[in-house]
Specification:
The chain is α/β, with parallel strands linked by helices and 281 residues long. Helices cover 40% and strands 13% of the residues. The longest helix is centred in the last third of the chain and has 18 residues, at 253-270. It binds 3-methyl-2-oxobutanoic acid. 3-methyl-2-oxobutanoic acid binds at residues 40, 59, 61-63, 101, 197, 220, 230, 232. It is found in: Cytoplasm.
Amino acid sequence: MSSSVTSRPTALYGGQTGRRVTVRDIAAAKERGERWPMVTAYDAMTARIFDEAGIPVLLVGDSAAMVVYGYDSTLPVSVDDLMPLTAAVVRGSSRAMVVADLPFGSYQASPRQALETAVRFMKEAGAHAVKLEGGRRVLPQVEALVSAGIPVMAHLGLTPQSVNVFGGYRVQGRGQSGDELMADAKDLEAAGAFSVVLECVPADLAQRVTTSLSIPTIGIGAGPSTDAQVLVWQDLMGLTERPAKFVKKYFNLAEEMDRAVRSFADEVTAGSFPTPEHSYH
Ligand code: KIV
């Protein structure tokens, strides 16, 4: 009897699929109570490393505005800025689902604008899903995308595109606003979102949202109870100068790169690089 690969449940992290991770795999992981990691990626080489490590979902975040383009918020980055990064991450990976973040100003105006932007990310860059920020105010956008066949990852809490409304990067959902966030999360689920990022919210609120939803929650600064956790790769690798409290540094890449580039420079100035080993004869 032949068995279809797509119908077999598989561990999200590190599981062998022989194909891309899909929204069905993600839904099945929630049913199994399995936790999974997501990281950002912005280029083909890092995407390949994360993909081969078994990371099931790669987010081409609008955090590219800061970590790739050097802006001090996510607001300035455009669809045209993110499109080639998304295409590179898709080319660099073979198993991960690649989620494209819709940048500020590319979906808020109307469901039609959201659809046009998301279709570009799917058709031109090859993204498998999109992410957008906001609660009930973006429900028409979520519904339009889902009914067009586009998987939507929602994003609540500290949504960085609204930093000017929040008056800074602050924890969201404390007190009564926690009830609003819960209502937003339920409405996003009902509108068809396949997952929701919870950024910088109290851990107990994230836990309540996680148990109330049948779609997975993906935490960043949301405590230990969410179904998945996401970090910006430059934060987790130790490239970011002043990371947020929720960041755990798993490596000191900045220090390693500094050491390496200084060794290179010293050897060049001393005339000890290249040696015959690195020369053609
Ligand atoms: O843009 C981004 O990197 C994000 C994650 C922090 C969730 O939205």
